[in-house]
Design a protein that fits this description.
Length: 100
Amino acid sequence: MSPLRPSTVLMSLMLAAAMLPVVGSHAFAQLNSANTNALIQQNQLQTLQNSLQRQQFQQQQQQYRAQDRVIVQQPTPVVPQARPSCQTSIIGTTAVNNCR
């Protein structure tokens, strides 16, 4: 095997150095694209969760309003009435109340 000349090694290193940004930027673009997609999916998920929570809140409020609209008929209270201890006597054409 013949030894490599320094110029060949130098050219190989320069070529590798020149290719590094191209390969790196492609990998970065893929990584950046994956991160962007993940963020978009996360935002969509958050939007759906917010929408669901809003809908549940509105349904709960409708149930509360329906409960508030129900009119409960209160039974009339039973109040004992005192009987008057009065006696009415008719004397001639005059009614006389005799209360104790």
